[in-house]
Amino acid sequence: MTNHEFYMRLALQNAMAMKGQTDPNPLVGSVIVNDNRIVGIGVHMKAGEPHAEIHAIRMAGEHTRGATIYVTLEPCSHYGRTGPCAVAIREAGIKRVVIASMDPNPLVSGRGVSILQEAGIEVIVSVCEEESRKMNEVFNKFIVQQTPFVTLKSAITMDGKIASFSSDSKWITSDLAREDVHMLRNQNAAILVGVNTVIKDDPQLTTRMPNGRNPVRVILDSTLRLPTGAKVVTDGQAPTWVFTTKSHEPEKRKALESAGVKIFVTEKTGKVNPLEVLQVLGKQLISSLLIEGGSEINASFFENRLVDKMIIYMAPKLIGGQNAPSFLGGTGFDKMSDAVELSDVSVETLGNDFKFIGYPIYK
Ligand code: AOF
Ligand code: ZN
Question: Which residue's CA is the closest to the ligand 1 atom numbered 18?
Fold first, then answer.
């Protein structure tokens, strides 16, 4: 490992520890080194608060003169919630900037590096680039497309089922896998299910993790069948947003609204349109969405090519049954040659269960 990689890894590790608390902003870490000594460390902790570089510069004080700063993301050049870091770096007398990945934010993207180079500062890019890009997969999509990064999570048996033919689904995976799901909920800004799941299971959709942050609960409900007594309506644990169509009873809408539920009425009729949902969520600055749907909700996002990442927990169990649902319903593809492949697939074991992660490549 080179010195550059050593310090960049430290910056990456610190940034990663903030996963789930910076959105819609990226995860960014920074380390300042002067004369082979670490003089400042900074990390971005929350949108609206100082960027990683600023924390590190403040910590380093006068030791920034002639130093090298490591930053996992290109320093910014714009006035957003805070001022431009590239200017702060220049003013601090830093002589060299080592960057992991460029900022895809159209407001920055290359301008940060230009400010530094114009000031005669040496700039080195692409140190641990892959790690940095992967760490910010959510931000990288959201800042360009302005719709959330969508993760579909499901727990299945070895024959791909999410429930028995009589709809029994408690529990498919063991405790370890279920704890992992709570970490996923903590890391996503919103969680989405269909109204049928709420009617059947009355879930809370919260994070049962110490100090966990609850995602916004998003329910797709084309005709507003959501029971006013459902936990997601009454428990006050997290905001609940319901997407419906014009085919709903205004009285029901009033009842839900007075219970604190936010209702979005989509333009399209029939079923709630998944793309419209993502666009509205994007406008609400929801940068990441976890889909924990049943077969049909999952399929509607998948068939519309809207799923960015799949996390599938598989238990070594078999349930069988023509009428037992799999995690993707819908119509499905006719030919094996049309199957959607996953890239960057990884597999972990969690106790007796497997956790598959992959990224669909749509044709
Ligand atoms: C961060 N933290 O450490 C760095 C960021 O609204 P602002 O002022 O917080 O600016 C957010 C943008 O700044 C963000 O979209 C990204 O392009 C850039 N860099 N952001 O939140 C940081 N270095
Ligand atoms: Zn900045």
Answer: 76
